[in-house]
Amino acid sequence: MASSRHVAIVGGGITGLATAFALHEQAAQAGLPVSLTLIDADPAWGGKIVTHHVGDLIIEAGPDSFLSQKPWAIELCAKLGLSEQLINTNVLQKKTFVFSRGRLRELPEGLVIVVPTRLGPFLRSGLLSWPGLVRMAMDLVIPARRSGGDESLASFFRRRIGREAFERVVEPLMAGIYAGDAEQMSLSATFPRFRELERRHGSLIRGMLAARHLPTGRDRSAGPPRTMFVTLREGLGTMVDALVSRLSKSGVTLMPGRRVVGLRARSGQPAKGTNAIRLEDGTAVSADAVVLATPAYATAELVRPLNDSAAELLKAIPYASTATISLAYEVGEVGSTVKGFGFVVPRAEGRDLLAATWSSMKWPNRAPATRTLIRCYVGGIGRDALLKLDDGPLVRRVQEELASMTGLAAEPTYVEVNRWERAMPQYTLGHLQRLDEIQKSLGPYPGLYLAGAAYHGIGIPDCIRDGTETAAAVLRDFAAGNRPHV
Ligand SMILES: Cc1cc2nc3c(=O)[nH]c(=O)nc-3n(C[C@H](O)[C@H](O)[C@H](O)COP(=O)(O)OP(=O)(O)OC[C@H]3O[C@@H](n4cnc5c(N)ncnc54)[C@H](O)[C@@H]3O)c2cc1C
Fold first, then answer.
1. Per-residue pLDDT averaged across 456-478, rounded?
2. N or C: which end of the chain has fewer CB within 10 A?
3. For residue 278, with 0-12 CB atoms within 10 Å meaning exposed, 13-18 middle and 19 or more buried, which class applies?
């Protein structure tokens, strides 16, 4: 019988939790004796996923939903017995707006992610000028760029659909997800699908039209119909609670509130793959494999004792700081300022607000019928000066922005500010190459694995997939003799 192996996972955000869950599940299925320890510096599990229940309000401090087309989060919910709690966005009020040239303009229907598949609604929306529309349609005739190499998001979309469509539609929707700067973001690392559409179809519009006829993730899973974004009835924190409860029942050693300060290879023999984890309180945890599911800048300091160049490469992954400001109003005070899910604000507008979500309109039970819950998003690369303000002036600034953009001048009855310092990893130009170099630098340290939002996708489904694949790699390497993996 194989001897028992011990895996330590550092970081109890969704990636670390999903890694531990998948390790336990996959080891049990394979009949492998594996024990697990999950360590987090914070006393609370979940990392960026934080749900607050405040009276009859459900406030998401961090993420509020996830993409249903990427199946990994929905699949994890099913394994956790949470499928019944998954909820769709409100189909009756599904409009989204862009604040552009002084007013809110509806994002046209038929816009698949950011590329129009029906031109009619786009023409009627007034979002783009006539020359802007003509330039966008030139995507159909502009030849595809065949040369390889990375390209910034801004350069790619300006080249294909023109400056106006890029600034007014692509930038706020796509760069906004990362709170990033499209001029610096890597297309290959963030939205490789668009490069692929250009290569295959010679045009984004033609590519999106062709893609409409392919089966979707929903068709394949045969589950109930899902809207593009879904969440959990009582908030995303439910998923964290369910994971922690399962892990605890499965005998995983949970160590919340314990900061890891570094790694060292035991007996100076890193090639044998046994790593010791040093904790801030002076104690250590030994393990046959270590998964670091921490933000890249934290991971950098943990691996520095092993390899300085890996640490520098990890440190070079930039992070954006943001804040969410949730405001609750009496419903009569808000009126019908925005009839939809909310709006995004293009960087070109030069405003402080990145986006605002009418949470109680978007989801069925974020607030009772008598209240309206609005969540504002500020910060991001090049727009974070505002975050230096204390809570009071920050909230006032956000209220001024809301008033001038939507006419909402009422005083909220509840306000909550959640600050996220260095929270959103930025996949800047050359990101994928940087990951290769990190992998090479950590080559001599078998049994060491990196996972999380900093590498192959920042969305919750991507983090879950990364954790699940990392778990599979750990078990594969146990079977074959340890090998590194990033
Ligand atoms: C405001 C905001 C809104 C977002 N909205 C969405 C959304 O709507 N949909 C979506 O899909 N995604 C969204 N995201 C992105 C998504 O939430 C994150 O990318 C994802 O949750 C990151 O998970 P993670 O486990 O990789 O990292 P984290 O959640 O950052 O977890 C890392 C963990 O490591 C721990 N740690 C750090 N250093 C140490 C140490 N030295 N020792 C021990 N532990 C340590 C931390 O305490 C933390 O718990 C949003 C993010 C933010 C900030």
1. 96
2. N
3. middle
For tokens 């068709």, the residue is 219
Tokens 């039209």 belong to residue: 209
CB burial string 437-460: b at 16+ within 10 A, e below? bbbebbeebbbbbbbbbbbbbbbb
Beta-carbon count within 10 A of 408 CB: 21
Winning range, highest mean pLDDT, from 162-171, 289-298, 338-347, 472-481: 289-298
232-410-357 Cα angle (round to 5): 30
Q: Output 242 or 211, whichever has higher pLDDT.
A: 242
For residue 459 and ligand 1, the question of a CB distance below 6 A is answered with: yes
Residue 165 neighbours by CB distance under 10 Å = 25
Q: For the whole prediction, is pTM greater than 0.70?
A: yes
CA of 15 to the centre of ligand 1 (A): 8
Question: Using one digit for the tens of pLDDT, what is the confidence trace for 40-80?
Answer: 999 999 999 999 999 999 999 999 999 998 999 999 999 99
Tokens representing 393?
A: 């002036």
Rounded CA separation 262/251 (Å) = 25
Three-state secondary structure of 355-379 = EEEEHHHHCCCCCCCCEEEEEEEEE
Taking residue 376's Cβ as centre, other Cβ atoms within 10 Å add up to 24
Calculate how far, in angstroms, residue 358's C-alpha sits from the geometric centre of ligand 1: 23
Q: Establish whether residue 15 lines the binding site of ligand 1, counting it when its CB lies within 6 angstroms of any ligand atom.
A: yes
Q: Does the beta carbon of 417 lie inside 6 Å of ligand 1?
A: no
Structural domains of the chain, with CATH: 5-47+242-317+428-480 (3.50.50.60), 51-92+319-425 (3.90.660.20), 107-214 (1.10.3110.10)
In angstroms, what is the span from residue 16 Cα to ligand 1's centroid?
10
In tens, the pLDDT along 25-40 reads 999 999 999 999 999 9
Phi first, then psi: what are they for 357, rounded to 5°? -110, 130
Say if ligand 1 is within 6 A of residue 39 CB.
yes
